[in-house]
Amino acid sequence: MTSFSLRQVKLRPGEQYRDELEVELPAFEFGGQRYVPVPELVPADFEITRANAGTVFALRFTARLLGPCYRCLGDASLDVPISAREYQAEDPEDEQMTTQYVSGGNLDVSQWARDAVALALPDKILCRPDCAGLCGDCGKNLNDEPHTHEEPHGDPRWAVLEALREKS
After folding, report:
1. CA distance linking residue 76 with residue 143, whole number of Å
2. 102 burial type by CB count under 10 A (0-12 exposed, 13-18 middle, 19+ buried)
3. pLDDT average, residue stretch 134-143
4. Distance between CA atoms of residues 163 and 168, nearest Å
5. pLDDT by residue (tens digit) across 149-160?
6. Which residues does residue 88 pair with via DSSP β-bridges, in sequence order?
7. Single pTM value for the model
8. What is the pLDDT of residues 21-36, one digit of tens each?
9. Alpha carbon distance 30, 125 (integer Å)
10. Is the backbone peptide bond immediately before 146 cis, with ω within 30 degrees of 0?
């Protein structure tokens, strides 16, 4: 995991520290599916800006995720541009003025980056925008084999209700 020691940077209010970090992104689950960042080490622009009453952290990178398509379960690749900011007050009176990624003089960059990627993801990760998905009757991939079925197959769980309807 990538972390940054805040003790190595001594800034006065108004000063800024910039660096490029190799951030290790862990794989994670989204919508019950596993997504893997490729490459695992992502170059990121990292900034620390000292304000009068605290510190502002900024992180910018692009993550590429590989995993299953939401509709057809085929391979999907997604580039996610990230621009994240966090603030840590010097003497916080309010919990909202702190960041959960700073602990004991260290900034957990990997966890921050992972959470930023998770927040930037779309509702559905697709292999392509017009993915047709899987056939509801036979389960075949409609992208590879577009087709329709002649007879609609009813759901067997509704058979009892269908029989009642036919009686009346």
Report:
1. 13
2. middle
3. 89
4. 9
5. 887 666 778 888
6. 55
7. 0.79
8. 999 999 888 888 899 9
9. 9
10. no
